[in-house]
């Protein structure tokens, strides 16, 4: 007996329904599985950078701390090294001179030129005219700077003349001049002493001279002594020879043909025609020693 058309139709629809249902279920299972995999993958891909960033941050932080420590150590080391170098290279202050100028003349050089004044016992106790080389070196260098002396021949000539005139730093006043007022290390006569004192100490000069301020020659011996005392201090007295060259014998200052380095004839010319005094063997001897040892 053959099945009826109705039965076959029902069977066909059941088959189709079953196929469609199975396909839908399979699709849903695949979708869930795919979603789960995607979430796992996303979770993994997001978790790794976070962990890496935390780890990298810790590493960077440690590196930063180590760099800071290293820099601090280097700074301390550099500072210590700098202090050490500064301490070892800085010269100790000299006890023999209070000069703040460049030292062109040294006490050692003066000791060669004037060996007697190299001794502490050179000056007697209470002798306020006498000076040692250690006393002279500072004021001499200050005077060289003050009067802008740059030529060795001029410096040697001035110092040689002052050594002669002051008896190797033993005298600051010419006590044998009865008129008074002759002194300083270059033993200037009163007219020059008066002008020198007025240029350096105008107020004190005017007060001491009084009515004779415009007439130095009319000053009494006692006034002359008081005025001269203004420039007998080491700074002014040791600078007097340089002042005289620059202000009163300017033809010999800065001239390439005068007071040339190592030229005895030029010094003799300066003594006779610049200072206007007599030449002597003692003057030559002082110049010879000064020329041999100073600024060499």
Relative helix content: 55-70%
Order of helices and strands: HHHHHHHHHH
| Content-based structural category | mainly alpha
- Determine the number of helices (DSSP H or I, runs of at least 4 residues): 10
The strand count comes to 0
Mean pLDDT across every amino acid position: 79
Unreliable residue stretches: 30-97
Report strand %.
under 5%
What's the N-to-C terminus distance? 150 Å
What overall form do the CA principal axes indicate?
Answer: elongated
Rg over CA atoms, rounded to whole Å, is 51 Å
Major β-sheet, in short?
A: none
Tell me what the structure shows.
The chain is elongated, with a radius of gyration of 51 Å. The chain starts with a helix and ends with a helix. It is mostly helical. It has ten helices and no strands.
List keywords for this structure.
64% helix; 10 helices; mainly alpha; 296 residues
Secondary structure: elements and pairs:
Elements: H1 5-89, H2 107-113, H3 133-146, H4 152-165, H5 190-200, H6 202-209, H7 221-229, H8 234-248, H9 264-275, H10 281-293
Summed up, what is this model?
This protein is an all-alpha fold and 296 residues long.
